[in-house]
Automatic annotation (TrEMBL):
Record GO cellular component, one term: cytoplasm
Protein name: O-acetylhomoserine sulfhydrylase
MF-aspect GO terms: cysteine synthase activity; O-acetylhomoserine aminocarboxypropyltransferase activity; pyridoxal phosphate binding
Keyword line: Pyridoxal phosphate, Transferase
SUPFAM superfamilies: NAD(P)-binding Rossmann-fold domains, PLP-dependent transferases
Native source organism of the sequence: Gracilibacillus boraciitolerans JCM 21714
Length: 557
């Protein structure tokens, strides 16, 4: 019976591209922190330098740790080869330089990450490579811009920061019909969510930037060669003319499917040298092992945050491909696996640029940094004044960046904590009331999750002031043993967190407006005290045993 079993993405993320180290039998991929490698003999060295056989010469070109990472990514993207680079920017640059020379053109979507836009708009033209920008939301714009000088079409699966989804299949057909490759940046989606190569008959490669897969600890990029493009074409003389530095090899004729990746490695990595370090490759391999778990949590949290923002009275608009009303929602559902839509949201705050800046200046949990995507932490930035600040007004408009736009990269913290921090920041920035109000369940969780209050870098016992005799409540005695400071209500000196009413007859005299919570023991109540507590914004809890609630929380219920 035929066996059709093959490794799924989750398995490839952990095992792809790795052979057990033959010298040590190490289970993890070893870090080969070396510059060079010993040749077996002079013939072996000669063959390696002539590309007659593949192997390690110098870590600028190839390294075993980096190779394991490259193979794993190639498997994930369904490519034939991959080349790791020192950054996402270097991956994009090398991909363009590998096929374009002075006098050539690239057609690019105008909705791009600011660094890529600047590379295309300012740097590449200095070297004679012209980039034409078109509105990628209409694929026909790419077709109409193609000329005899065009060497590739470039776009991002999810554009940064406008979050449009590229129509991969249609644009791939346009590229194929014109005999040019399609270069795709798959940073925001990742190959766990989207596999662009599978949608294009003639995909050249997928570029995966540094930002969407790791933990915010390392910079790197990777170029993946699909192996599906025929480079034996007069349009690409760099692939058909002999390379004298390798004994006249013609990459598009003599190499086969991985021609693009091999040419990039042995020419551009050799000559320019933006190589991925083995240490960073090791970090990336570690990140890949849990990518599928993190991506699912990122996406789940992001959907919650997007729905919250969509219903917020101080938010003018929200853009997230997972929302049904997003213009790219149908494309996202077509191209993205597992109903996952990424971790990036952009939204506009009422009050424009200044309100947007105030939101960012008032967050506490969110980090104001420039990277995005799979960093486990939640990140926030104002693109118009940072990542896209070098663009003029017309360029900002064409790239989808408006002054009120705030970009969020939603992390894997508790969704409740993520939203609570964003809510208080929006309230402060817009001089409005928070939309998230404290409730009894939140108060119980805070009060009983730990006997310690941790505020402003200080730790102290939580204080329960008791109206009535402490010994009347078995629950209070147990909480005292857990580490809570339990005191009579007439002996308050300093912070008090909970006023616990054991005897409602004593509640009036014992009432304290300092307490965050007024908790009535089962069977106890006092309407006058409840009225005061409501007026002071204190949380009222009734008919719940604190020790039973603490036990429930310990069980994770």
């Amino acid at each position: 019976m035929t066996n059709f079993q093959f490794p799924r993405s989750e398995t490839t993320l952990l095992h792809g591209g790795q052979q057990v180290d033959p010298a040590t039998n190490a289970r993890a991929v070893p870090i080969y922190q070396t510059t060079s490698y010993v040749f077996n003999n002079t013939e072996h060295a000669q063959n390696l330098f002539a590309l007659a056989e593949m192997g390690n010469i110098y870590s600028r070109i190839m390294n075993p740790t980096v190779d394991a990472f490259e193979q794993r990514i190639a498997l994930l993207e369904d490519g034939v080869a991959a080349v790791g680079t020192a950054s996402g920017a270097s991956a994009i640059t090398l991909a363009i330089l590998n096929l374009a020379n002075a006098g050539d053109e690239i057609i690019a979507d105008s909705n791009l990450y600011g660094g890529t836009f600047n590379l295309f708009n300012k740097t590449l033209p200095k070297y004679g490579i012209d980039v034409k920008f078109v509105d990628g939301t209409d694929p026909e714009n790419f077709r109409s811009a193609i000329t005899e000088k065009t060497k590739a079409i470039y776009g991002e699966v999810i554009t940064n920061p406008s979050l449009n989804v590229l129509d991969l299949e249609v644009i791939a057909d346009i590229a194929h019909e014109n005999g040019i490759p399609l270069i795709i940046d798959n940073t925001f989606a990742t190959p766990y969510v989207c596999k662009p190569i599978s949608w294009g008959r003639r995909y050249c490669r997928t570029l995966c930037n540094k930002m969407d897969w790791w933990h915010g600890t390392s910079i790197g990029g990777v170029v993946v060669d699909s192996g599906r493009f025929n480079w034996n074409s007069e349009r690409f003389p760099g692939f058909t003319e002999p390379d004298d530095s390798y004994n006249g090899i013609r990459f598009g004729i003599d190499i086969g499917p991985p021609a693009f990746a091999i040419k990039l490695r042995v020419q551009l990595l050799r000559d320019i040298g933006p190589s991925l370090s083995p240490q960073n490759a090791f970090y990336f391999l570690q990140g890949l092992e849990t990518l599928h778990l993190r991506i699912q949590q990122h996406s789940e949290n992001t959907k919650v945050v997007a729905n919250y923002l969509e219903n917020h009275p101080q938010v003018e608009w929200v853009s997230y491909p997972g929302l049904e009303n997003h213009p790219s929602n149908k494309l996202a559902k077509k191209y993205f696996f597992r109903n996952l839509f990424g971790s990036i949201i952009v939204f506009g705050i009422k009050g424009g640029k200044e309100a947007g800046r105030q939101v960012i200046d008032n967050v506490k949990l969110w980090s104001h940094v420039a990277n995005v995507g799979g960093d486990a932490k939640s990140l926030i930035i104002h693109p118009a004044s940072t990542t896209h600040q070098q663009l003029n007004a017309e360029e900002l408009k064409s790239s989808g960046v408006t002054e009120e736009l705030i970009r969020l990269s939603v992390g894997i913290e508790s969704a409740d904590d993520i939203i609570a921090d964003l809510d208080q920041a929006i309230a402060t920035a817009t001089n409005s009331e928070p939309t998230i109000k404290a409730n009894a369940d939140q108060a119980i969780s805070w009060a009983l999750s730990s006997p310690l209050a941790r505020e402003n870098g200080e730790i102290r016992p939580k204080t329960i002031a008791v109206a009535g005799a402490i010994e009347q409540s078995e629950a209070l005695v147990k909480l005292q043993k857990l580490g809570y400071q339990v005191i009579p209500a007439d002996n308050i000196d300093g912070d008090v967190d909970i006023l616990f009413v054991v005897d409602s007859n004593e509640a009036e005299n014992a009432y304290s407006d300092q307490a965050k919570i007024v908790w009535f023991a089962e069977g106890q109540t006092n309407e006058s005290v409840k009225g005061k507590a409501e007026a002071n914004g204190q949380i009222i809890i009734e008919n719940k045993c604190p020790y039973q609630e603490a036990d429930r929380l310990r069980r994770g219920e």
